[in-house]
Amino acid sequence: MTKQINVLTTTDIHGFIANMGEQPALAFEGLKEKYPHSLLMDSGDFFVGNPLTTFFCDQMTVSPLADYANAIGFDVMVPGNHDFDHGINYLKEQVKHLNADYVCCNAFSEEDELLFPPFAIKEINGIKVGVIGLVTSRMSMISDFPVTRGVIVKTALPELQKQVAVLRDQVDLILVGYHGGIERDLATHNEINYATGEDETFKLVSQTPGIDGFSCGHQHRVNHGQIGQTLIVQCGYRGNYYGHLTFEFDDYNKITQRKEEVVASETLPVKARSFYDEQEYQEWLSEELDLSQLVSFLQEKFARTNLGIFINLQGKTRKQVIDSFTIPYGVRIYHLTKSEYTTFSQQPWTLKEEHSPNDAQDFVVLTNSYDVPEYRLTEQFVDNIFDEYSYYLKQRG
């Protein structure tokens, strides 16, 4: 008799669970009921990623996102790089309140102990399923040092291979939840990203035999396909898509058919639900933010020799500061000639810090303004300046 299981995946929800059914992620409640014999997993960047999640961290010990995860019915969850943004202790506190297993095989303490179990084993419709968690190897490149203090993220490939070898004889199906992206086109296998080690789906799958399903994320892209016999899904951002892997088994629990798809969550009914007090959140947004350390924070974060800082803010409240940093590139670095710099620096800046020798002929500046010649752009950053600055203030009491 043929047996079937459904694997449902999400990633990069980033805490977008606005009340009153305004966010697509709220459509996931009831998803497991739609698909019988299912396992629901998330591939990271769940707890952090917008002002609402900063409010949760600032005002509450336990984020309402833990209640949301339990209401949705996640079975297994994996950390993303941003889930560490408020420190490992904050993340561990949230995990304590999850019904889901929280797994990651390559995140260790400074004492070389796993921060979370490397995998979970679930039984679905008589099929034993092993789920391995994995976070991008390049946390050190994309997270500030104070955030990852106490966390050592090891190279993904050998840690994954180790756990696949452990699970192979224990389960009928091996799944991986990876918070990292795809570096090659799934159809042509041509490179689409530089090989930085941040996004390694193709490398991980092609060099690790025995993986049946692989859910990735991190890049906020939508993809699906196969690498060999391994099904791959990548499900966008903010819950706008979910992955669906279907596996059929014979009487000996051997896979006979497999299929993958990515589905728009707008096809699901949204269930309005209140996870937090909206009035309290709006009052928090309208409070003035201490801006006295913003320049020193930016100097520490973007340590450069002779870096000038030029920031314009819409006002002093949290909401006004949030709105001052355009998504996705909140701040950028430009290299200007002397004449360009003279014109630029004379604008009416809210925050201004000049750092250049008197005889300088060229100038490097950090700004949130787009009123700069694009041909002088040297670097741009997707960092959430408001969120990181709030954490910076909190750490300093």
UniProtKB/TrEMBL annotation:
UniProt-listed InterPro entries: 5_nucleotidase/apyrase, Calcineurin-like_PHP, Metallo-depent_PP-like
Keyword Ubl conjugation belongs to the record: no
Highest taxon, organism lineage: Bacteria
Source species of the chain: Lactobacillus bombicola
Keyword annotations: Hydrolase, Nucleotide-binding
UniProt similarity note: Belongs to the 5'-nucleotidase family.
Pfam families for this protein: Metallophos
Protein's name in the database: 2,' 3'-cyclic nucleotide 2'-phosphodiesterase
Domain Calcineurin-like phosphoesterase per the UniProt entry, residue ranges: 6-221
UniProt keyword annotation of Nucleotide-binding present: yes
